Amino acid sequence: MLGVLSFILPLTLWSAISYAPFLWHPLVEITDPGDVSYFSAGMRAPADAFAEEVEAMTAAGQAPPRGVPANPVYLPAPHEVAIALWHAATPAADAREEFRLSSSLWHSIQIIFWAFLISSAVGVPLGILCGSFSAVGRLTEPFIEFFRYLPAPAFGALAVAVLGIYDAPKIAIVVIGTFFQQVLIIATTTRRVEYALLEAAQTLGARNLKLVRRVVVPAILPDLYNDQRILLGWAWTYLIVAELVGTSSGITFFITQQARYQHFENVYAAILVLGIVGFGSDLLLAWLGRWLFPWKRTSA
Amino acid sequence: MSDPSAIEHQVAARLDRLNAREAILDVRGLVKTVPHGTSERTILNNVHLKVRRREFLCVVGPSGCGKSTLIRTIAGLEEAQGGDILVDGKPVHGPGPDRAMVFQGYTLFPWLTVLGNVMFGLQMANKPKDEAAREARQWLDLVGLEPYADAYPHHLSGGMKQRVAIARALAIQPRILLMDEPFSALDARTRARMQAYLIDIWRKIDVTIVFITHDLDEALLLADRVLVLKTNPGEVVELMDVPALPGARDLDSPALKAALIRLEGFIHAQEQAQAAEDEPVTPIVRLAPIKDGID
């Protein structure tokens, strides 16, 4: 219940600022420019400039401008964003591919999917080996620890030079941002495996790789799953930077384009969709985790 | 009901037969130390022990006497600094399926069903899955948990979990079953039932049991012989024969009462010696003299 309220509160605040004319509204949207030469219908003027012009025009006996209080263009009202979202969901058939929110988002999701798959395919087994065998850990972890501090976006130019300008460098940057953290986090999770279970398994004849495969992996699986959920969140944050590398693409291209045309309701719609997709997939994965690992209470 | 001297006779005859059997476990001059600051602390010092086939041995002693360390070293979970541990005449290096262990915390694999847990050791020995399942079901039947084969451990009570752990340990047909205070986390009623179960199982199958407990009554109910350890360093004080036959024992019988008093004597004497060794502590709490009472 409080969870729902935590969403309603900011939404109420946003609506109040947008719809109650006495809250903030520092500008005046001109409906009729009157005789003021530099005003035009639809433009937004500062409230004090507008008041001055009204006074000046009235004093000079000319037609005063008229207008309604307005917020800056970068703060669209909730209904405008909602309409933008609706348009995004039902794009016009003739709209160009990269100007559609849905296809931009789909492109971004593909980048995330491949990057996370590549990173996990190497990072998860390596992390488990680091955590299970101290020799592997000592051999690889110091370098990984060092590499973790190199910011992934710094590899942008290099990635473009090596991998071209399309999707490959973007995937590479998300991989660089995710992989090194992934190895360290999963190694730590692996080290936290309940020692008593390992001892019990050893007295039952389990050894080495068999011990890893039949005991360590299933024992850490619920925690590993949660780690992956958190890492997927990180991958999303690297996505935005990655998409600016080379030819910008995906949701980031959509956002920058729409901001350039001052279509801020589309910008907000895109940001909201990112949030909904991220949060929604996390909720879905949490629910799936509870279903997959009934013996472990996964924290949502 | 029966003549005490006749029982005494039977017990003596049984122990003679036991002593005539080959030693399955032979601990020779075991020394275990742990680093303690700059020096080393001796946990076990020169422990000798022979356990005969199908014997039920209980190890008792005051807390900190190293009884847990002894059983963990026998299991191969800890390394000895001196001496030898022989199982069937072969020295022990690391844990192995000839010495299964039941722990105080149940240590069942939570991701496996009850059946899966019991199958675990069999599958580690590369038995085919259907054969392992068939064998595991028989072991579950022995501990009376066949109907729960498909349940997960978190659905079971403590006593049931420990029965699964026993079935899992026995399924690999170990030479020795090591039990480290297996019933101490259970309530008194369940513990009594588990003791009866264990004796029943032990009489049915060919297994040798080394059982750690801090409960002298438990030792006298279960064991053929009781090994008493002392603290600091852990050394063998006594290896006492229990003057009763296996099965339902009456702790109120004169022979077992006398045995309990002897055991208590060993442990008590040590605790007093320990207390005398400890430095007198300056009291922090000052007690007011009675005549200065506030009433």
From TrEMBL, chain B:
InterPro entries: AAA+_ATPase, ABC_transporter-like_ATP-bd, ABC_transporter-like_CS, ABC_transporter_ATP-bind, P-loop_NTPase. Keywords: ATP-binding, Nucleotide-binding, Transport. The keyword Ion transport does not apply. GO terms for molecular function: ATP binding; ATP hydrolysis activity. Pfam families: ABC_tran. It comes from the Bacteria. Residues 25-256 form the ABC transporter domain. This is ABC transporter ATP-binding protein. It comes from Hansschlegelia quercus.
